[in-house]
Amino acid sequence: MYTRDALKFFGSKSKLASAAGVKLPSIYKWGELVPEGRAMRLQTASDGSLVYDPRCYDSHAKAKREGELNHENQSYD
């Protein structure tokens, strides 16, 4: 589940944090994907509009291991 999709669905970071059961500062630490442990909770909170797909997390992790993804704060120099 992509963070941008969850944010778009809930409309604000505060509402997203509340639905995910976390404090607002936690949302700022999320990367491209909602943490896997929170994705199912958001699927339930969105009545299935947002979908937790374990394959998405598996492919993202594989791409990271193979160097296809860089950490958001990594320099490209």
Automatic annotation (TrEMBL):
Species, as recorded: Candidatus Pantoea gossypiicola
Superkingdom as given in the UniProt entry: Bacteria
Molecular-function GO term, any one: DNA binding
The protein's name: Transcriptional regulator
